[in-house]
User: Which sequence fits this backbone?
């Protein structure tokens, strides 16, 4: 449904490298990675453990500095930005869903959802907020605190928070990693519909081929490099690709 | 278990640092106090030991000198005379013997003001030996006094005031001022001089006239010939001195021992007072220590549960925590001991520099070390007791739970009920004490105060929620999301917030109570002085001797005086009960005082009727028009009519009668005070005119209304300053407590902070959030302290009422507001480091799931 001609990048990595440590303990987590995350698209990042998925996401989201190359959100080059500007960028342009511990225990669900707007001191768009809350199906739980919500509900609140401020792009690191398959499916379906219906851009890191199948496109990372890409994935096609890497990895 | 404890201590070094610091400060205060007071008393004792170097035995007349008047009437007493001295000198064992008289001697500066403080300026006799010198007082310049018009003065006083040989010195002992010529300036190592006093020497005959009687001594010191022991000489002297109750004999060794005991008693009361404040500091420390251990254990819940799951018994877990506390307590106490020795040395140097204490080394006794170590260790272990018990109750299954947060707080119902009972009981007991009033109310009020404080501490978690939540909307409006989060964080762990705030509450309660009492007393005194006194000056005597009639008339005729009245203090028996009665001059009465008569008139007073204060009138059932029988001091009796009733006043006394009506019925007038009204109010010229009229007598005090108020309020404010300084240590420890709590909270909420930073809260926002949390906790603690302190001050004032009539509780609002503001400042300061730490937090490190 997306045509190449209309695709513009919401975020772009070019020649992005990230090196941890030095000398003996030197680890190249990202090795000259170039990849575009297109607007209005749901992209999944897959790869073996330690391949650099989280690192790529952190660099793209302005949570971590890059060693070389460039990371852009829209037109903004992140490499070289000061903490203050990065903070503002995260607040206004980026949404986050982490694997766990997304919410402040002292705030209610609703307060957690509006937190980024409260931090920015921005007015909440009431109509949009209602739509987001309706989409996540949390209307009757807004006054509860995180400890009174199930894990799946907590993740839904986190998704609503990421959506509510209408960021340029949402990054999700294994958002279903801690959930059973049913709650996971709920979240994933919800993320996909927010892309389809609300026009949101989402980048999601996952280990699960089924989760990846919800995405429009899957990018494969191995040893800090982009090794493959798959459009309109299904669980089976993703699994096939991964087997192929494994086989290659073993033979090489 | 000991090994586990040791490893825990080492691995939590940073976190235990605050606890250590609290114990160090508390124990350093204790050790400093002990070292300082021991050193001072050792130094004093050393300087004393040389005092009696030349005294082998002393015979003393206890009825001579300052206590003379009372004993004079006892005809059995025999004096120590020149004849006694001669007989002692003639004893076979005597090498030399000297007779001494001594007493107060007021020296005047050029304006007629007394030099030094009353009691610290002494006069004694110069007893030259055959060579014309007195070894006790070597002359630096000039010669000793050889006639009634000469005087010698100590070098320090002379230098301080610029007195030179040949100058005229004004000296008064108990009567009129004497103008004497300075014949010499001497040096001396008399301890009285070391302690900032003055000493003048008269020739023996003059001194005897002034202090005892011609030819009489207060004591005679004899030095033994080589080979004669002190006791042998004492026994020889026994044969030649009078044998009446007032004559006592002592050896030099006994005198030294007595003096040392006196020094010990003096320094032990100072020690007790200082240790009281050290105790408060340690008590505050308990809150901090207990809080730290609670937090450490909350953080280690899983670790402890694992130990239990692996088979450690409850007892072992408990022991391991207690061992940890003992290690921490002992180490910190040892450091505290070291710091305390430093504090003691600094205090000693400071006290020494102001000239009050003879020089000498530091005294660190083994008991100081033992006490300090024991106190610090025991206090730490005690504070860790509850946390240790809680640790032992961690169930093994907690090891399996994936819960990040410490287990949810148990219900506070039991705690709140206990708190309510304690606080309620405390308030009740305080009120009971207040209603009893006076000294009988003292015990209940003290007990009640303790209960109230305990109760409030127990209740603080309950109080913290609504009180802190109340500022929520304000915080949200002012500081946005940081404010909201800060408020939420402050109430999310009520126990911890409560313990942190309570530590501050203790200090602020005491400071507030003292301040309110001080300001109430000052205000009351000021009110009494200004409302009843119309006179510009009160002229009184420095030593409580009455003012002589001659002096009264000199004052009355001084330049600028428009009206003056004596206050003649007499005791009469009114209707069978004693009454202190003040005689005022009828003619000038209205010009010098203004009693707020509630009934009657001052005209009635002028016609010889009695004015009486409301308390006396009430207890005796008197009112205007009552006639009562009276017995006067000279034995005559009559009838007095009550002419007016006024509210109780310290200036006016319980009852007033015109001097004209009173004078004929006394044995002698006792003019305590002369009240003086000047033509043009109080002025330097008028004051000097009054001083001149007294012949610049240093024993006569001329005070304007303002000076009377100032003298008093400066006394109060000086006392408050000292108490503030002593309580400062407790407040400092409380600040450490706030720092500690915040640091722990930041550590525990690492993930939350990381998440907040990820979703866009900037560093400033994070800092502000931590700071506001700190301010909320600190202000909460301070506000509770101000509240309790005010209540206790009110109770104390009600007790003091019986000693200070008309005492009402006055709230020094600006001071109280200042305490709250200081609380906020404390909060800000305490948050400096934790807030920086929170802002510097590595976002990725914080959000990574382990
Ligand atoms: N702070 C760090 N310091 C040093 N090395 C790091 C750090 N963070 C990540 N690495 C290394 O960088 C590489 C990539 O890590 P990254 O967390 O991006 O992997 P991942 O693909 O997200 O793995 P997983 O699927 O297990 O989450 C790994 O080899 C890791 O050890
Ligand atoms: Mg990862």
Assistant:
């Amino acid at each position: 449904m997306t045509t190449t001609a209309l695709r513009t990048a919401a975020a772009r990595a070019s020649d992005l490298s990230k090196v941890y440590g030095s000398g003996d303990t030197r680890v190249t987590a990202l090795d000259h990675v170039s990849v575009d995350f297109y607007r209005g698209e749901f992209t999944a990042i897959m790869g073996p453990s330690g391949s650099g998925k989280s690192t790529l996401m952190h660099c793209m989201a302005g949570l971590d500095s890059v060693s070389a190359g460039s990371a852009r959100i829209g037109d903004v080059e992140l490499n070289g930005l000061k903490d203050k500007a990065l903070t503002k960028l995260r607040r206004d342009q980026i949404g986050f869903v982490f694997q766990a511990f997304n919410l402040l225990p002292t705030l209610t669900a609703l307060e957690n959802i509006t937190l980024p707007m409260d931090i920015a001191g921005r007015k909440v768009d009431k109509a949009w907020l209602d739509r987001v809350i309706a989409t996540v199906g949390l209307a009757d739980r807004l006054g509860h605190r995180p400890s009174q919500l199930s894990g799946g509900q907590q993740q839904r609140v986190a998704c609503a928070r990421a959506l509510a401020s209408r960021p340029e792009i949402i990054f999700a690191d294994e958002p279903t990693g801690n959930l059973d398959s049913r709650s996971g499916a709920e979240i994933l379906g919800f993320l996909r519909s927010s892309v389809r219906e609300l026009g949101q851009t989402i980048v999601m890191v996952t280990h699960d081929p089924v989760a990846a199948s919800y995405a429009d496109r899957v990018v494969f990372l191995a040893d800090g490099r982009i090794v493959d890409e798959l459009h309109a994935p299904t669980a089976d096609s993703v699994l096939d690709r991964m087997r192929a890497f494994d086989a290659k990895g073993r033979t090489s | 278990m000991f090994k586990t404890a040791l490893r825990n201590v080492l691995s939590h070094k940073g976190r235990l640092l605050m606890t250590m610091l609290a114990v160090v400060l508390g124990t350093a205060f204790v050790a400093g106090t002990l070292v300082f007071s021991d050193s001072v008393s050792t130094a004093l004792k050393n300087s004393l030991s040389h005092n009696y170097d030349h005294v082998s035995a002393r015979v003393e007349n206890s009825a001579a000198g300052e206590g003379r008047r009372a004993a004079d009437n006892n005809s059995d007493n025999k004096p120590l005379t020149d004849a006694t001295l001669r007989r002692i000198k003639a004893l076979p064992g005597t090498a030399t013997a000297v007779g001494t008289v001594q007493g107060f001697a007021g020296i005047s500066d050029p304006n007629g003001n007394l030099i030094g403080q009353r009691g610290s300026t002494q006069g004694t006799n110069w007893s030259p030996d055959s060579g014309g010198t007195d070894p006790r007082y070597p002359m630096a310049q000039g010669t000793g006094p050889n006639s009634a018009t000469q005087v010698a003065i100590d070098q320090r006083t002379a230098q301080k005031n610029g007195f030179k040989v040949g100058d005229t010195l004004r000296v008064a002992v108990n009567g009129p001022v004497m103008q004497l010529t300075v014949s010499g300036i001497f040096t001396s190592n008399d301890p009285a001089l070391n302690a900032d006093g003055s000493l003048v020497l008269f020739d023996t005959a003059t001194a005897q006239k002034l202090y005892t009687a011609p030819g009489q001594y207060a004591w005679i010191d004899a030095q033994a010939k080589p080979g004669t022991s002190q006791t042998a000489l004492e026994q020889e002297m026994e044969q030649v001195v009078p044998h009446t109750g007032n004559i006592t004999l002592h050896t030099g060794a006994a005198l030294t021992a007595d003096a040392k005991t006196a020094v010990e008693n003096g320094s032990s009361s100072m020690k007790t007072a200082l240790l009281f404040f050290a105790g408060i500091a340690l008590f505050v420390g308990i809150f901090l220590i207990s809080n730290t251990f609670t937090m450490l254990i909350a953080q280690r819940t899983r670790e402890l549960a694992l130990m239990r799951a692996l088979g450690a018994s409850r007892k072992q877990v408990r022991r391991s925590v207690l061992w940890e506390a003992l290690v921490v307590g002992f180490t910190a106490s040892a450091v505290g001991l070291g710091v305390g020795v430093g504090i003691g040395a600094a205090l000693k140097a400071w006290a020494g520099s102001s000239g009050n204490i003879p020089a000498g080394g530091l005294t660190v006794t083994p008991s100081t070390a033992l006490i300090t170590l024991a106190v610090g260790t025991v206090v730490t272990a005690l504070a860790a007791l509850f946390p240790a018990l809680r640790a032992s109750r961690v169930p093994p299954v907690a090891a399996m739970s994936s819960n990040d947060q410490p287990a949810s707080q148990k219900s506070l119902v039991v705690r709140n009920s206990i708190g309510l009972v304690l606080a309620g009981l405390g308030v009740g007991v305080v009120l009971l004490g207040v209603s009893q009033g006076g000294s009988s109310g003292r015990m209940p009020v003290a007990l009640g105060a303790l209960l109230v404080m305990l109760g409030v501490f127990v209740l603080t978690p309950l109080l913290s929620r609504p009180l802190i939540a109340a500022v929520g909307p304000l915080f949200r409006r002012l500081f946005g999301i940081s404010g909201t989060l800060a408020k939420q964080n402050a109430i999310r762990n009520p126990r911890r917030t409560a313990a942190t705030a309570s530590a501050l509450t203790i200090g602020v309660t005491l400071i507030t109570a003292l301040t309110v009492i001080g300001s109430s007393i000052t205000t009351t005194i000021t009110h009494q002085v200004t409302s009843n006194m119309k006179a510009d000056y009160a002229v009184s005597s420095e030593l409580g001797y009455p003012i002589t009639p001659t002096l009264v008339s000199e004052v009355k005729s001084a330049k600028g005086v428009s009206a003056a009245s004596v206050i003649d203090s007499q005791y009469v028996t009114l209707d069978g009960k004693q009454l202190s009665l003040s005689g005022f001059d009828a003619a000038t009465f209205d010009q010098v005082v203004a009693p707020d008569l509630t009934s009657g008139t001052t005209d009635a007073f002028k016609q010889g009727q009695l004015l009486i204060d409301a308390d006396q009138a009430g207890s005796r059932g008197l009112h205007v028009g009552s006639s009562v029988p009276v017995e006067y001091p000279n034995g005559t009796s009559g009838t007095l009519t009550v002419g007016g009733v006024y509210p109780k006043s310290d200036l006016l006394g319980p009852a007033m009668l015109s001097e004209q009506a009173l004078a004929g019925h006394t044995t002698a007038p006792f003019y305590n005070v002369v009240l003086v009204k000047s033509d043009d109010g109080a002025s330097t010229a008028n004051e000097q005119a009054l001083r001149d009229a007294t012949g610049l007598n240093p024993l006569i005090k001329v005070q304007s209304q303002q000076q009377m108020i100032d003298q008093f309020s400066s006394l109060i404010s000086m006392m408050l300053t000292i108490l503030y300084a002593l309580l400062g240590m407790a407040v400092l420890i409380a600040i450490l407590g706030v720092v500690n709590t915040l640091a722990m909270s930041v550590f525990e909420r690492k993930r939350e902070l990381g998440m907040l930073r990820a979703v866009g809260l900037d560093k400033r926002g994070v800092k502000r959030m931590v700071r506001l949390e700190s301010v909320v906790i600190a202000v909460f603690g301070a506000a509770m302290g101000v509240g309790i302190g005010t209540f206790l001050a009110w109770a104390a004032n009600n007790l003091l009422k019986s000693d200070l009539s008309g005492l009402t509780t006055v709230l020094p609002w600006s001071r109280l507001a200042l305490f709250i503001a200081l609380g906020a400042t404390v909060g800000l300061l305490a948050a400096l480091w934790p807030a920086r730490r929170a802002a510097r937090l590595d976002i990725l490190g914080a959000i990574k799931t382990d």
In short: The radius of gyration of chain A is 18 Å. Residues 216 and 232 of chain A are 5 Å apart (CA to CA). Residues 42-60+82-251 of chain A form a domain with the Rossmann fold fold (CATH 3.40.50.300).
